[in-house]
Structures are given as C-alpha cells and as structure tokens.
Design a protein that fits this description.
By secondary structure, this protein is mainly α. It is built from 21 helices and no strands.
Length: about 500
C-alpha cells in the first residue's frame, strides 16, 4: 500500500511544476506527453473549436510546467491585447486608436520591465545616487544600499509579449482584422511549440492556419522529423556538451587558460549559442509542422555571412525582422536622412541587446552590432561595398566571412561574459598570452569537445544543396528507417543527458 502511495506521489510530482526542472523539448517527459497529446489531436482534426480548446489547454499546461502559476500572466497579456485590438478596430478616431496602442505598449512593456529590468534599474539608480553623494558630500546618498528583490522571471516573457505587441500594431496599421473569439487569441499567443524560445510568429502568418483542417503529408512528416532530429543533435549533443565540458570553464576563469584556449573557448561559444538557439527553433518548427502549422525559417547558416547586414538577415530571423518592422521602421527607418538612419540602427540594436538581458554587457553587445550595421550602411552608400556575399567575388566573400565571423565572435564575448572584467581577461590572454604551441594539448585534452566543434562547424558551412539532399534522404525514407533513425538519435541524446549535461537556452528569456 505504501508502495502504491509512493508511486502516486511520484507521479503527481512529475506532472506538477518543478522550478528546478522546467519542461524541455529534449526531455523524456515532453516526449511521452507529446505522443499522448498528438494521438488525441489527430482525433480532433475535423473539430475546429474542440481542437482549438484542446491545444490551448495543453499549451497552458506546458507553460505551467515552465513557470508555475505565472501562466496566469500569459492569460492576462492575451486578454488585455485581445480587448485592446477590438477597441482599435471599433474606434474610428485616430487619437483613440493611438491611445489603445499606447495602452497595449504600457501593459506589455510594463510587465516586461518589472520582471526583467526592475532590479537592473534599481541598481543603476543606487549607483547614480552614490556618485552624487560623493560629489556633493551627502552621507545619506552614500549610504543608500542596493539589495536586489527576489523577482521570478517567467520563462519566454520576452517572446510572448513581443508577439502580442506585433498583433496589436498590425491591427492598428490595418494589416489584419482582430480575432472575434478570445480562445482563438489565447491559442495564438500560447501555442506551445514556439511559446518559450520562439520563433516569434506573426499573426498574419499564423492565424489563417488555425482554421485550416490539419493535413500532414508524408513529405511534411519527414521534414518535421528531420528538423526535430537536427534540433535534438544541435541542442543536446553539440551545444550542451561543449558548454559543460569546455566553454563554461574558460569563461568562468579565463586567466587559468592560455590565449589559444581562450580563443577556442570563444569559437566554442559561437557554435554553442548557434546550436542552442537554432536547435530549439528547429524543434519548434518541426513540432509545429507535425501539427499542421508551418513557421518561417529562423536561422539560415548565419556564420556564412560575408557582411554584418547579411548576418542579421540569417541570425534569429524572426527577432531581427520584428525589430526592423516594429522598432526601426517606427523610429523612421531610412526615410529621414543618412544620419538619422545610422542613429535608428544604433537605437534598434541597443534595445535589441537590452531585450536579451538586463546588464551592461548586453547593451554593449547591442551597441557593437548597431555601430557595425551603421558603418556597413555608410560603406555601401559611399564606398560601393556590397550588401550580401552572393554579390561578391569568391575572394572578397571569403575575406568578408572571415571578418564578419570574428566581429560576431567579439560580440559573443560581451554577450557571454559575467562581467567586463572577464571580457578584459579573455582579450588580455588572447592578445598577450597566446601560446599557439598549446593547441595540440587542447586537442588531446579535449578530444570530445574538439571533435564536436569540428563536426558542428563543418555541418554549419556545408553547402545548402548538401543539406537539402540530407533532408531528402530522411524525408523519403520508409517509416521503419525513420523510426530507426529517431531511436538512434534518442539513444545518443539519452547518453549525453545521463552524463549530466544541463540546458542553457531555457533561462535566457
């Protein structure tokens, strides 16, 4: 009897929210939950309202497993913007429509600001107060102490707030009509494949698909399976492994490693963050495809970019296009002269950096990319530089790829380092304590890491034709072969998970 009670308690614990073990696409729990969900989903294929309610409830449970009772915040956002969009649509006065948009921005950015940036702002204010105290000899200002509040950061809040904002703005601009059923909008905002880590889905692309009867062709099943397998391998095998076994160690203590090891740590992090973000996106896109929803590509071999402008057309495409359409263009884009264009680029990337996290290093990362984009824009206008690598000769393209990759890698140091002190230490080791003879020791001492880095970069720089051929092989294989491939990938993933590999991307946004 005690054994049965113990089992029931364990089962209840498994399905309840656990703050130290949020649900991931690469977890065994999600795999079994999704199988059960998918079977029922197929039976509701031709029942529109029942299917919408069912998926919405599962999505809310998925978010509950990620953030506990804070799933109520998601419902609050959805309800608020659903009502606001209705208000915009039924208001003819321009000032009234603008007032509704402003209200939406206040609600969404207000929530984002509190949960993500409140402590950061308090720290800045406290530091500023200390400086004033020393300047004017005020003991009261000098004694102001900063103690961060214990504020829980709901997972994915940056994504679903941006997604909801884009819906309201699109209604305001007349690009779409607002939804008439509340549950349909909750479905759109909470759809679980892209809920916690993107891609950011536009309403005009996604909403029409809600009302179509899901049809999963043989080709689409194979494509979805291929994307899920690629995502699992990128995320769990490459990214998590090199992070735990090498990259984290270098960034935690750069002075313990030579310059060549620090440089390999930077290259490793460049691969890690790409495999992390793109791997999770691949899984999200693949899972959505199995459910009959097609998302746009979110990563397109970004390190093959020959210019920084091309990089932002290939990296986190849903975010970069969102920043362009709803921030850069709203600031005036390139319509108000060259100087204003450069300023708008800088502001957009500064805010893009701040979106990733509340720290000075993220702001500097955004500033670096903003300045780089402005410089490239100037060089295209006045010096005849090309926008894309496809417009260049082979030699110029290779040089451009080399320069762009290392500029991006320098940015990743700012992005990953815990402090500017760590940034300085890494750069000091790379430029003054390089010791290239240690490279062979690195290869021998970190064989697994080196092999995975080589494999990761080779696959990344693989021609598109080769990637498409590989996808065709998986897509057109018999179901039995696909099942064997899936089992083999799951086996590899389990082996890496059992080695204690911890997730990274889940806690970023």
């Amino acid at each position: 009897m005690m054994s049965n009670n113990f089992s029931i308690e364990k089962l209840e614990e498994l399905f309840a929210y656990q703050g130290n073990a949020p649900i991931l696409f690469s977890s065994g729990l999600f795999f079994f939950l999704f199988i059960g969900f998918f079977i029922i989903y197929l039976s509701l294929r031709k029942h529109l309202l029942a299917r919408i309610i069912y998926v919405t409830l599962f999505s809310l449970y998925f978010y509950y497993k990620s953030s506990g009772l804070w799933f109520g915040l998601l419902l609050l956002t959805a309800t608020s913007d659903f009502c606001i969009a209705q208000g915009i649509f039924h208001t003819s006065a321009k000032w009234g429509r603008k007032l509704f948009v402003t209200l939406s921005l206040c609600v969404n950015l207000g929530m984002l600001g509190y949960f993500k940036y409140f402590n950061f702002l308090r720290e800045i204010i406290a530091s500023f107060a200390h400086e004033l105290g020393y300047q004017f000899g005020s003991t009261a200002l000098q004694n102001i102490s900063y103690q961060p509040l214990d504020i829980f950061l709901p997972v994915g809040i940056s994504f679903f707030t941006f997604q909801s904002i884009s819906y309201v703005i699109d209604v305001y601009r007349g690009r779409i009509q607002p939804l008439t059923r509340w549950v349909d909008y909750v479905f759109y905002v909470s759809f679980f494949p892209q809920l916690v880590a993107g891609p950011i889905v536009r309403a005009r692309d996604f909403i029409p698909q809600i009302y179509k009867t899901p049809v999963l062709t043989r080709s689409e099943f194979g494509e979805g399976l291929f994307l899920i397998l690629c995502g699992l391998l990128k995320k769990t095998v490459i990214s998590d492994y090199i992070s735990l076994n090498f990259v984290d160690r270098v960034f935690d203590a750069p002075l313990l490693y030579t310059g060549v090891e620090n440089l390999m740590g930077v290259y490793g992090y460049a691969l890690q963050i790409y495999c992390d973000f793109s791997g999770y996106s691949d899984m999200a896109i693949g899972i959505a495809l199995l459910l009959g929803f097609r998302f746009n590509m979110n990563f397109d071999s970004p390190y093959q970019s020959a210019t920084i402008t091309e990089f932002w057309r290939r990296w986190h495409i849903s975010l970069s296009s969102w920043l362009k359409d709803y921030l850069y263009i709203s600031l005036g884009g390139n319509r108000k002269g060259q100087v204003r264009t450069y300023v708008n680029l800088l502001i957009t990337m500064l805010l893009g950096g701040l979106w990733h996290g509340a720290s000075v290093s993220f702001i500097l990362w955004g500033a670096l990319h903003g300045v780089a984009l402005a410089v490239h824009k100037f060089m295209m206008t006045h010096l005849g530089f090309k926008q894309l690598g496809s417009d260049m000769s082979l030699l110029h393209r290779l040089i451009g790829i080399l320069i762009t990759f290392h500029l991006v890698c320098f940015g990743w140091i700012l992005f990953r380092a815990d402090s500017m002190k760590t940034v300085g230490e890494m750069l000091h080791q790379i430029f003054t304590n390089f010791h290239p003879e240690v490279f062979q020791q690195f290869v021998m001492g970190y064989k697994g890491v080196f092999i995975l880095m080589m494999v990761g970069y080779i696959l990344h720089f693989m021609p598109k034709k080769a990637e498409n051929m590989l996808q065709e092989v998986v897509t057109r294989s018999p179901l039995l072969v696909q099942a064997v491939i899936l089992a083999a990938v799951i086996f590899v993933v389990v082996q890496f998970k059992s080695a204690g590999v911890q997730p990274f991307i889940y806690f970023q946004f």
